[in-house]
C-alpha cells in the first residue's frame, strides 16, 4: 500500500539513527539544579533538525523562567486537516553513572537497541516527527505543525501559559503525542488512558537537635522511625494503596502474565507483586504509591544519635477519572493524622498532574490503526499506561474538538527513567513508517 514510504524509511534509517544519537549526546535534564543551558542546546538541536527536514518558521517558544519549546510548520493543501505533532526534548536525570553500563549521554548500540538517557523518553519522538516531515516532502498531504516541549519531565509547568499565549499557533484537528509506547516489541498499541500524579514532602520533627541514642533512647523516639511508620500507612497489608477516597477501576487484562511483568521490570526472585485485581488494572486504572526519596543521614555517616528530623518525597499515581486536587487533600490529611507518638508530621503538596482517558470511537484514530497495522504487519491493541503526561488533559480541554492520538516508539523494556534506557531500533523504524502512513491516511 505504502511501499514507497517503507523503502524510504529503510534508506533514511542510518541517518535517522545518527540524528537520535546526536540528540542523546546533549544532557538536557530539565530538573532543578541541572544546567539549563543544556536544555537550550537540545532545543536548538531539535530546531535545526526540524528545519533541515522541511519545517518552516521554526522558532523557540519562550516564557520567563521556562525551558524553551520548539515550534514549526509545513503548509498542506488548503482545506486539509491540521495535525500537531508533539514530543519532548528534555530528559530525566541520569542517576548515578555507576548504575549504567556506559556513560548515560554517550549512546551505544547493543542487541538492536540504542542505549542512552532520553533515547526512548522522548528524543525518539523528536527524530520521528522530523523524519516523517522529510518522508512526506515539502507538500505534505495535511497541514503539519510540530511542537517539541522542554519541560515534560518536570510536569509541563508552563504549558497552560504557552497554550494561553500561543493558542492559535498550537490549534489542530489532530494532536499526535509521541511520548507513549507499544504493548511489547513487535506488538503495536494505541494508548487510551494515562494515570495522573501527585507528589508531596512528608516531614517529621521530634527534637531540637540530635541527642545521644543511648542516653535518651528508650524514652524518646527518633524521627526516622516515625517517618517510616507514617510511610508504611500508604499501603494496606495486600499492598493496595490505603489513602482513602481514591478512584480505582478495572480494565481489560489483555495477555500480560506475572512472569512477563517480572521480567520486564527485572524483579528479584522471591519478591511478591503487590495489590489486587488484574495486573493491567494495578498498572493502569488503580492508584499506586511510592516513596521516591528520604533525607536522612547516609549509613556511612551514622552516629549513635536520635535523628531529630527526617523528610521523604512521596508520589501517588492516580487512576483515570480521579482528581489531583481531591487526592492531594486526602493524602495530606491521611498522612498528617497517622499515629506518630505526638510528633509533628507536616505534608507539603508538590506536583500534581491530571490523569486522562480517551473518549472512544473517533474515526480519525483509524488512520493510525492503518499505519500501525501496515508498519508492524499486525493490528494495534488498545492499552492503558501507568505513567503520566499531565498536559494531555490541558490540551484536550483547550482544543475539545481535536482528536488526541497517544502513541510512541517505546516498549516495556525501554527502562525509561532508569539506568541503561534504550530504544529498539526496529520498533523506531516501524513507528516512523506508521506515523507517515497515518498522516497520508488522514488526508483521505
Ligand atoms: N513518556 C512518559 C510517560 C509514559 C510512561 C508513557 C510510561 C508510557 C509509559 C513521560 O515522559 C513521563 O515520564 N512523564 C512523567 C510526568 C511527571 C514528571 C509529571 C511521569 O510519568 O513520571
Ligand atoms: Mn518521562
Describe this structure in words.
- By secondary structure, the protein is α+β, with helices and mostly antiparallel strands.
- It has 2 domains: 3-194 and 356-443, Aminopeptidase (3-Layer(aba) Sandwich); 196-248 and 287-353, Alpha-Beta Plaits.
- Helices cover 33% and strands 23% of the residues.
- The protein contains 13 helices and 18 strands.
- It has helices at 3-24, 36-52, 119-136, 159-165, 167-170, 213-216, 223-232, 258-265, 279-285, 324-336, 365-376, 391-398, 425-442; strands spanning 56-61, 69-74, 82-88, 108-110, 113-115, 143-149, 174-178, 189-194, 196-205, 211-212, 288-295, 305-306, 309-318, 344-353, 356-357, 381-385, 403-407, 422-424.
- The strands form 5 sheets. It has a 6-stranded mixed sheet, covered by helices on one side.
- It is elongated and about 80 Å long.
- The two termini are 14 Å apart.
- Bound molecules: ligand BES and manganese (II) ion.
Brief overview, please?
This protein is α+β, with helices and mostly antiparallel strands and 444 residues long.
Amino acid at each position: 500500500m505504502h511501499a514507497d514510504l517503507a523503502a524510504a524509511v529503510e534508506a533514511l534509517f542510518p541517518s535517522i539513527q545518527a540524528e537520535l544519537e546526536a540528540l542523546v549526546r546533549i544532557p538536557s535534564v530539565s530538573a532543578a539544579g541541572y544546567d539549563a543551558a543544556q536544555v537550550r542546546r537540545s532545543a536548538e538541536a531539535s530546531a535545526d533538525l526540524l528545519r533541515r527536514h522541511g519545517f518552516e518558521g521554526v522558532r523557540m517558544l519562550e516564557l520567563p523562567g521556562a525551558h524553551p519549546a520548539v515550534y514549526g510548520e509545513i503548509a498542506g493543501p488548503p482545506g486539509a486537516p491540521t495535525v500537531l505533532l508533539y514530543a519532548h526534548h528534555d530528559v530525566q536525570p541520569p542517576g548515578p553513572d555507576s548504575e549504567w553500563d556506559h556513560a548515560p549521554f554517550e549512546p551505544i548500540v547493543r542487541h538492536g537497541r540504542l542505549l542512552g538517557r532520553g533515547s526512548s523518553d522522548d528524543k525518539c519522538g523528536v527524530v520521528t516527527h522530523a523524519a516523517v516531515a522529510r518522508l512526506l516532502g515539502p507538500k505534505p498531504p495535511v497541514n503539519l505543525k510540530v511542537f517539541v516541549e522542554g519541560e515534560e519531565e518536570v510536569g509541563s509547568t508552563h504549558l497552560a501559559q504557552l497554550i494561553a499565549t500561543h493558542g492559535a499557533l498550537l490549534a489542530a484537528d489532530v494532536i499526535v503525542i509521541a511520548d507513549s509506547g507499544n504493548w511489547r516489541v513487535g506488538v503495536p498499541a494505541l494508548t487510551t488512558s494515562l494515570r495522573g500524579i501527585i507528589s508531596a514532602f512528608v516531614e517529621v520533627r521530634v527534637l531540637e537537635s540530635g541527642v545521644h541514642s543511648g542516653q535518651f533512647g528508650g524514652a524518646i523516639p527518633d524521627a526516622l522511625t516515625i517517618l517510616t511508620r507514617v510511610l508504611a500507612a500508604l499501603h494496606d497489608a495486600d499492598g493496595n494503596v490505603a489513602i482513602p477516597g481514591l478512584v480505582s477501576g478495572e480494565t481489560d487484562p489483555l495477555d500480560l502474565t506475572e512472569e512477563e511483568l517480572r521480567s520486564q521490570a527485572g524483579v528479584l526472585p522471591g519478591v511478591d507483586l503487590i495489590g489486587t485485581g488484574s495486573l493491567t488494572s494495578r498498572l493502569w486504572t488503580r492508584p499506586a504509591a511510592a516513596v521516591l526519596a528520604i533525607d536522612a543521614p547516609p549509613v556511612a555517616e551514622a552516629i549513635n544519635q536520635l535523628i531529630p528530623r527526617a523528610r521523604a518525597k512521596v508520589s501517588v499515581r492516580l487512576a483515570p477519572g480521579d482528581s489531583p486536587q481531591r487526592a492531594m487533600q486526602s493524602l495530606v490529611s491521611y498522612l498528617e493524622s497517622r499515629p506518630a507518638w505526638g510528633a509533628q508530621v507536616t505534608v507539603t503538596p508538590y506536583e500534581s498532574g491530571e490523569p486522562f482517558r480517551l473518549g472512544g470511537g473517533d474515526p480519525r484514530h483509524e488512520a493510525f490503526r492503518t499505519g500501525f497495522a501496515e508498519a508492524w504487519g499486525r493490528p494495534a491493541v488498545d492499552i492503558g499506561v501507568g505513567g503520566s503526561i499531565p498536559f494531555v488533559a490541558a490540551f484536550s480541554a483547550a482544543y475539545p474538538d481535536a482528536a488526541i492520538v497517544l502513541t510512541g516508539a517505546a516498549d516495556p523494556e525501554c527502562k525509561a527513567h532508569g539506568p541503561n534506557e534504550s530504544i529498539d531500533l526496529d520498533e523506531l523504524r516501524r513507528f516512523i513508517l506508521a506515523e507517515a502512513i497515518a498522516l497520508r491516511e488522514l488526508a483521505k
